[in-house]
Design goal:
Elements: E1 2-6, H1 8-13, H2 17-23, E2 31-37, E3 48-52, E4 54-58, H3 79-93, E5 100-109, E6 121-123, E7 129-131, H4 139-150, E8 157-162, H5 166-172, E9 177-181, H6 185-198, E10 202-204, E11 222-223, H7 231-240, E12 247-251, E13 257-258, E14 268-269, H8 274-286
Parallel strand pairs: 3-5, 3-8, 4-5, 7-11, 8-12, 9-10
Antiparallel strand pairs: 1-2, 2-5, 6-7, 9-12, 13-14
Helix pairs in contact: 2-4, 3-8, 4-7, 6-8
Length: 288
């Protein structure tokens, strides 16, 4: 498995506007990580691309978390990045012949004198402009860069994992991951089956065009939040704007962390997504 790490200069050259904006409040520079598993005889011609949200710690930025305890577990905001790294490592170690690329935009989100602020407009490499209304909706901003970058691989499927919204956690609690996207329905069926096989269950949310209206901005192509209602879905609609390929979004906000012991799983990170994706990949690519 090959690993390449882009530094801030490379990220600036690639015009990864979301990652650079979120990183402005941090004393540590951003990174963009590319992990590649290219087996000798892959069964897929077009690669599978996995994208993981890598917010190493999330204070909410200048839109600071509303209560002290809501920040206690925010080191888990890189759970999506950990999941895709764990998945591609498992694919390599198990020698599963599916060509896979993992993309991880990595930064923390902190308040600082130079931090990005509500009212800023971010312009992405494809020309898309985004009006920032909440600095705590930062995950979607950095995922947009990775979704745009994924286009260069002409992927057969892109799956992103992110602790993206409290709305997904409120809707499903710790028992299931919210999923949505533009991939064929057959892939969602296989993901659902893999979820029950691994006890990492998923529930599909709709991505109707109507939800996109909640992201309309007076001064940009999009707002980075759509309001209090349907927050998990509007976050997904935001990400969809940057895709042009079959895509599945997995919001693991409710399933990535255990505040108390749960069966064989201890307190802390659950590793959700790794077993689910391995099972899904086997079922989809090897067992057809």
């Amino acid at each position: 498995m090959a690993v390449e790490v882009y530094d801030k200069a490379k990220i600036e050259a690639l015009k990864m506007a979301g990652l650079l904006a979120v990183n402005k409040g941090s004393i540590d520079p951003p990174r963009f990580i590319i992990m590649t598993w290219d087996p000798e005889k892959p069964v897929n011609e077009s690669p599978l691309v996995l994208i993981g949200k890598g917010v190493m710690f999330d204070t909410g930025g200048l839109s600071l978390k509303p209560t002290p305890n809501s920040m206690d577990e925010m080191k888990i905001d890189m759970a999506g990045a950990a999941a895709v790294a764990g998945t591609i490592l498992a694919l390599a170690r198990l020698n599963i012949p599916v060509k896979t690329i993992a993309l991880i935009p990595a930064t923390d989100n902190r308040p600082d004198g130079n931090a990005y602020v509500p009212g800023d407009v971010i312009k992405y490499q494809d020309g898309t402009t985004v009006e920032v209304l909440n600095c705590d909706a930062e995950g979607r901003l950095i995922l947009a860069d990775a979704l745009l970058y994924a286009k260069r691989y002409q992927p057969g499927l892109v799956i992103d994992l992110a602790t993206l919204t409290g709305a997904a956690q409120v809707a499903l609690g710790p028992l299931a991951t919210a999923v949505m996207g533009t991939a064929p329905q057959e892939l969602f069926r296989k993901l659902d089956e893999a979820g029950f096989q691994t006890m990492e269950r998923v529930v599909q949310f709709p991505l109707w065009a109507d939800y996109g209206k909640m992201l309309e901005s007076e001064i940009a192509d999009l707002k980075n939040i759509g309001g209090r209602l349907a927050g998990a879905i509007t976050a997904g609609k935001f990400l969809e704007y940057f895709t042009s390929y079959p895509w599945i979004h997995m919001d693991i906000a409710g399933t990535a962390y255990n505040p108390t012991r749960d069966s064989y799983r201890g307190v802390g990170a659950t590793g959700v997504g790794v077993r689910l994706l391995i099972e899904f990949i086997r079922n989809n690519y090897l067992n057809n």
